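Try this one yourself first.
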């Protein structure tokens, strides 16, 4: 996924002329909501994606609600009226405060301006996030149209991260309670990174309702920069099993030690082990004594640092039905949900350590380019990137 630049909300000519410079939020030029309206305009109104996108973006962003209704009735105008009236609304709020509070009018006006600025700032957050989501969905649509046979697993929803009783193939609309909780959390985000993650989460939920739980939304909203950085380090070292459905399961970080409770390699390349407790407090990781990956037969397909890898037995005469238990820091249910929102920093040195560790188990780890999984019997075929 590509990084998004911070989107901006349009300011009308009237806004610029009548608003004091100390009241207007910074970076409000341009027409960022074009991404939202362009995306909606390009959808077939009869599709589930269009209905979910319209429902979510209509509630969250400041594009006129009448436009969404008109478009889905087939009457949308070619151009969308910009978000005029924002400043007028703020001034009305301020005037109401001045009239109802018996204090110095200037004091009340300053307080009213601050309150109104907060409201507009929260709406700018929602607009920024809506724009990121629209861009993500447009990119996904483009990728799907040019490459129907994906070679990558489904990162958005892991094998066991179903939340709203979603069944494969069943049409599900985005949940009202989920959307209300998302709006509450998204209003408060303050950094570009968090807007990007919330935008990606929204796009994933629009595309497949049930991909993210309400708990995952709340957890994402509670992350400070330190915890987010720790989680990113853990994601960058993680390994998961790609199952017959093409989803990632059993996501964790292997400790690469003979002793299941020794974490020297993890501390060498990732966060110190004592900081893992912070991720446990946020319900992003579980205790270290879980067997995070059970391999019952080989070859087996793994997802590691944004690539497909295949594990094969070095000794072809060996027992291919042998079971191998790998231990490590296991991701929680919420951690697996939020994993797909993180831009990872590959650690090739750790991957080399992983290869050496598996070699000690008479196993070979090879990067593969093309994978094919028969969902009927779970049979796996892969083509190595190196021939």
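Now uncover the answer:
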């Amino acid at each position: 996924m590509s990084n998004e630049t911070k989107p901006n909300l349009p300011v009308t000519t009237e806004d610029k002329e009548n608003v004091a410079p100390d009241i207007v939020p910074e970076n409000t030029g341009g027409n960022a909501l074009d991404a939202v309206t362009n995306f909606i305009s390009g959808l077939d109104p009869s599709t589930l994606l269009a209905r979910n996108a319209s429902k979510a973006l209509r509630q969250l962003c400041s594009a006129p609600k009448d436009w969404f209704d008109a478009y889905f009735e087939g009457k949308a105008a070619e151009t969308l009226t910009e978000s005029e009236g924002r400043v007028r609304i703020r001034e009305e709020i301020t005037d109401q405060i001045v009239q109802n509070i018996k204090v110095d009018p200037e004091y009340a006006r300053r307080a009213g301006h601050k309150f109104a600025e907060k409201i507009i700032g929260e709406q700018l957050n929602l607009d920024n996030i809506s724009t990121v989501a629209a861009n993500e969905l447009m990119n996904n649509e483009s990728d799907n149209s040019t490459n129907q046979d994906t070679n990558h697993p489904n990162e958005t929803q892991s094998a066991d991260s179903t939340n709203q009783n979603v069944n494969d193939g069943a049409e599900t609309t985005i949940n009202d309670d989920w959307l209300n909780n998302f709006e509450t959390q998204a209003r408060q985000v303050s950094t570009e990174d968090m807007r990007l993650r919330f935008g990606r989460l929204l796009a994933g939920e629009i595309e497949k309702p049930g991909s993210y739980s309400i708990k995952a939304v709340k957890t994402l909203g509670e992350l400070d920069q330190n915890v987010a950085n720790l989680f990113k380090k853990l994601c960058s070292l993680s390994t998961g099993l790609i199952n017959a459905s093409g989803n990632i399961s059993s996501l964790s970080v292997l400790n690469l030690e003979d002793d299941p409770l020794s974490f020297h390699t993890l501390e060498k390349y990732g966060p110190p082990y004592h900081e893992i407790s912070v991720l446990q407090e946020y319900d992003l990781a579980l205790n270290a004594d879980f067997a995070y990956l059970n391999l019952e037969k080989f070859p087996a397909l793994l997802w590691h640092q944004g690539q497909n890898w295949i594990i094969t037995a070095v000794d072809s005469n060996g027992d291919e039905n042998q079971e191998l238990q790998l231990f490590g820091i296991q991701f929680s249910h919420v951690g697996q949900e939020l994993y797909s929102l993180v831009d990872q920093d590959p650690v090739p040195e750790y991957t080399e350590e992983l290869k050496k560790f598996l070699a000690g188990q008479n196993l070979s780890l090879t990067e593969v380019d093309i994978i094919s999984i028969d969902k009927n019997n779970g049979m796996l075929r892969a083509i190595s990137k190196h021939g």
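Discussion: The first helix runs from residue 13 to 18. The chain has two domains: 13-214, 225-384.
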